[in-house]
Structure formats: C-alpha cells, structure tokens
Amino acid sequence: MPDTITTNSPIIAAYRAATLGSAAAAIKAQQLFPSGITHDSRYIEPYGLYITRAKGPRKWDVDGNEYVDYFGGHGALLLGHSHPKVVAAVHEQIERGTHYGASHETEIAWAEWVLRLVPSAERVRFTSSGTEATLMAVRLARAFTGKSKIIRFKHHFHGWHDHMTSGFANHFDGSPTAGVLPGVAGNVLLAEQNDVAGLARLLDEHNDIAAAILEPTGAHGARLPIDPQFLHALRDMTQQRGVLLIFDEVVTGFRVTPGGAQAEYGIRPDLTTLAKILSGGLPGGAVTGRKDILDLLDFQATKAAEREKIAHPGTFNANPLSAAAGVAALEIVGTSDACTRANRYGEALRRRINEVFEEERVPWAAYGTFSMLHIFTNPDRVAITPTQFDPYQHSTESLTGNRQADIVHKLRLAMMIGGVDFNGSPGGLVSTTHGEEELEDTIAALRKTVHMLKQEGEI
Ligand SMILES: Cc1ncc(COP(=O)(O)O)c(C=O)c1O
Predict the structure, then answer these.
(1) pLDDT tens-digit profile of 217-236?
(2) Atom number in ligand 1 closest to CA 159
C-alpha cells in the first residue's frame, strides 16, 4: 500500500473506507510507475482515485463513487467530459483512419478555426502537446531574432522541457533543476510579474533577449493574478526593444474568451502557444502567430530568404483524431456562449464558496478569474473577509505557500468523500456542463468538509 501517512485522521480513514478499489489499483501501480502515478499532479497520499467513466461535469471511480469534477482534464475540458458533438466527430474519424501519413482536410478546418478565433494568429503549426508548443515557440523566437535569452516569470508554468523547469515551483534563483544543463538554465532570465520597473531593468541590462513568455492571466492559471496594465507595459516594452512576446495560452486559450486572453485584453503577442481545449480533450498543441516568424518552418520562405529552416517532424502533429475533436470543440466555442457560461459558473462558485467560509468563520477565500477557481488557505492567518478577498493584497508566498500543506491535502480528501474532486492548487477548472446541481453538490460537500476539518482541529 502506498502509505507514508501514519495518522489517525478520521478524514483519511473515511477516504480509505470509501475507496477500496482505488487502493487496490494503487498497490499494482506502485510496482509499475514511479510513485504509482503518471502525472505529478496526481500525487496524493494515501493514493489517488481510479476513475472508470466520466460524463459532462461528473466522473465515477472504480468503487462506484460519483464526483463533481473540477480537474477538467487539466483544463482541456471546457465542454465537459465526452461532449456529444466531440464524441461523434471522434467516432466518425476513427472509422476513417487515425493516421494517414499525409495531409488531410480536417487539419485545414482546425487551423481555420484557430485563425478565426485567435486575434494574432496568421499561421499555425500543430504539435502533440503544450510542452512541445512552448519548446517550438522558444526555438522560433531565437532563430528569428538571432538572440539567445528568454525572459520567463517566476511561478509561470509552460510545460516541462529544459527551458521551463527553473523558477516554476523551485529554483527561483534560476539554477538548473536536476538533469538540466547550466547552459540552458543560464539563458533563462527569471522576472517578477507585475513589476514594470524590474522588467525595464532586465531589458536594459541584456541586449540578447529573444523573447518573453508568460501565462497572460498570471502564474498557475491566475493563482498569482496579473494586472492587465502590466501586460500592456510588457507588450510596449518588448516591442520597443525588438523582443518577441509569447503568450502561453495553453490554459487561457478558448477559455477566457473564444479568442483567449489576448482578445480579452486587446494585446497582440508575436507568438501564442495553445493546447488543451484546442484539441477538444485529445492530445494536441499548436504554436501560432506572425507569418514572418512561422515562415522559419516554411521550405520556400526560408529558401527565398536564404535562412536555415527549423526542422519540425512529429509523428502525431495534427493527427486526424485530435483534429476532428478540435474542430468540433472550437466550432462550439466559436459559435456559442460556452466561455461566458463557464465564466458565469466560475463567478457563482467563487461567491458561494466565500459565503460558506464567511458563515462558518473560516479565514479562507475562493478567488480566481474567468472559469478558474483557487482557494486561499491563509497560511499566515491574516484577517480577511472572504467575500471581499483581493489576492493583490497578499504576497506570492502566502498565495502559493499553502500548496503542499497538510490542510490542503485533507481539504481535498474531505471534498472527495463528499463527492467533489478539486485539483491540488487547490481549486479547479469549470466546464460549460457545470450547472445548478453541481453548484449545490459542491457547496454541500464544502460545508461537510469545513465541519470535518474543524472536528480535526485543522481550522
Ligand atoms: C500554461 C501552460 N503551458 C504549457 C503547459 C504544458 O502543456 P502540456 O501538458 O500539454 O504539455 C501547461 C500544462 O498544464 C500549461 O498549463
């Protein structure tokens, strides 16, 4: 049994009692995977849930327990699990083949949706994941500018390739994480978001910066929110100095608005990375943006310009299944009020959670932007009014410092016992299928969770 927890917590005991099938699966997984898991964010003690089925806003585990799902396919499922139109498109495609080793019309339709929805998109190159998309964006920026350094912002996440590891969860001094070459980490400059003066200094000190990349609503899906004024300053300052601006819209793309954060804030980045909702819940990613930059992937354009082409193979680039799911999903995003509905639920969810915290006198707060939820568990025990919580008034350390705390762990387990799966942020991502029932079920589970945590003396 994967169990390093020795505790007599009633919450953990109740979780174990309700999830015997997951426990059995976890024992097998321990013999197969490091830590028994296949994605770091699924690590939870004593073990995570094993899910067999999902539909709309809900999922069911091997023990038959039902959950309101806020993991949302790590943000990929704006339309909920198995949206009928996405399922139909994938069914139809799988009958017609999953890989042609050739171009196909569905990739054209997919790219047309990207160009239609994303304001800065002039050309698209599909990849297999968001990590691959940010890797290509960085390479394009370096090749285009002939410069080597990249500005990243502390705590911002852009996938797991070598340029993106320091300064996301640790190594905030920019030193390389295990297995990364010092020469790679050394070409990444870590900056503070919302600090215009610091950014100006960095840009003045280095004349070899190819690009700045960021999550445009702030680190960790706005757990650390960005002031839109900072985005405008960043755009102006990078433009003035010939530094490319890359919006990593892997989470915000097609979620914040159909055109992503760039449409919301009226900012035109040079390059944009996309994934998740882009491919309707199947694997996929893309880098999109200025034609003159993406021309570095173009055989004729590079030849005419006498420049070296950037090679880009990739077995599953624009694979027909992801393309079919992507077309179905983007069509819904582009022709309905999907983003608005999810945002509205997000707002109601945050408000209702804060009302519970206030009624129960818990000094925590739900916050977030658009269809994203974060829960502040107040590690420094400062006085707050949950319904008026303003994350800008709190330090980065207090907004992020509670991520691994025991209390977050128990909060998540207690919510699961109550039939709600929050992510480890702690918080979640909302879909268009979350409705009145899910809201009431979530609030009921939260009330029970608060009572259980109080009984254990955690709050
Ligand atoms: C903002 C952001 N960029 C990039 C990535 C990496 O995407 P992928 O997991 O598809 O490699 C993620 C994944 O969560 C992300 O949130």
Answers:
(1) 999 999 999 999 999 999 99
(2) 6
pLDDT digits (tens, 9 = 90+) for 364-411: 999 999 999 999 999 888 999 999 999 999 999 899 865 557 899 999
Check whether residue 267 and residue 406 sit in a common domain. Answer: no
Whether residues 348 and 412 fall in one domain: yes
* Domain end (from 314, 335, 356): 335
Torsion of the alpha carbons at 326, 330, 333 and 336, rounded to the nearest 10: -120
CB atoms closer than 10 angstroms to residue 441: 18
CA distance 35 to 21: 18
User: Backbone dihedral region of 94: left (phi > 0), alpha (psi from -120 to 50 degrees) or beta?
Assistant: alpha
368 and 266 fall within a common domain? no
Question: pTM value?
Answer: 0.97
Domain range for 93 is 84-335
Q: Which atom of ligand 1 is nearest to the CA of 129?
A: 10
Task: Name all residues whose Cβ lies below 6 A of ligand 1.
Answer: 74, 129-131, 134, 157-159, 215, 248, 250-251, 275, 285
Whether 146 and 261 share a structural domain: yes
Query: Distance from the CA of 251 to the center of ligand 1, in angstroms?
Result: 7
